[in-house]
Amino acid sequence: MTLSDIIATEQLELRRRTGVARTETRAVPRAMPQDGASLRDTLRPRCEEALLRCSAQSAGISIFDNDDLDELTWAATVGVLGPFEGRRFPCSNSPCGLCFSYRKTQLLLQPHRYFAWMAQTGVSINEALVAPLIGQFGAFYGTIWVMTHDDLDIHFNLDDADTLADLSRGLASTIRLNDIGRDPAGSRA
Fold it and tell me: Residue 145: which of 120, 118, 122 has the closest Cα?
């Protein structure tokens, strides 16, 4: 198994756009984070919206670990992979790392066949669509992603890539502000 066997980003251009309910969903106001809310509680509504708008079976936001920049943490996760929220994994050996390397949205087919740690979860992944969270001056903060598992009829397209781009707006700033507001012990200042 090689990396080129799972990267299928060029297929996004070939897949028909559906546009189903995307305009109506964009009009729904997003919940604003409350003072004192955890980062997970702030990010989770975006994951839930990604799950709904992309007809995905899992959605999440991965962010760089402040203690080890080659580590990412699933900061907020919903759907089938919800129980893995908080899990850390190597950036250099992950779909998020590929997104970081290419600095653009990536479509991956059955990434668990290539990334051993994903296979160890025991959850098969049919498709993964991963979009970067890029902040001011091109700083990379993490990714927002959606995945399908056992429903082989769900195939992500450019509408879904646009949805993740829409949902990513402001997330890098939210993550950055959350980091600034923490003391070295990790609690809110």
Answer: 118
pLDDT in tens, the chain (189 residues): 899 999 999 999 889 887 654 444 444 444 455 566 788 888 999 999 999 999 999 999 999 876 766 788 999 999 999 999 999 888 888 999 889 888 899 999 999 999 988 888 889 999 999 999 988 888 888 999 999 999 888 899 999 999 999 998 888 878 877 764 444 344 444
Q: Considering the entire predicted model, what is its pTM?
A: 0.85
| C-alpha distances in Å from residue 6, one per residue of 88, 107, 127, 184 | 22, 8, 9, 39
Strands 58-64 and 71-79: antiparallel
CB 126 within 8 A of CB 149: yes
CA distance linking residue 73 with residue 76, whole number of Å = 9
The whole-angstrom separation of Cα 128 and Cα 110 is 8
SS (H, E, C) 106-165: EEEECHHHCCHHHHCCCCCCCEEEEEEEECHHHCEEEEEEEEECCCCCCCCCHHHHHHHH
Strands, E, within 11-116: which ranges?
58-64, 71-79, 88-90, 106-109
Residues 127-153 as b or e (16 or more Cβ within 10 Å = b): bbbbbbbbbeeeebbbbbbbbbbeeee
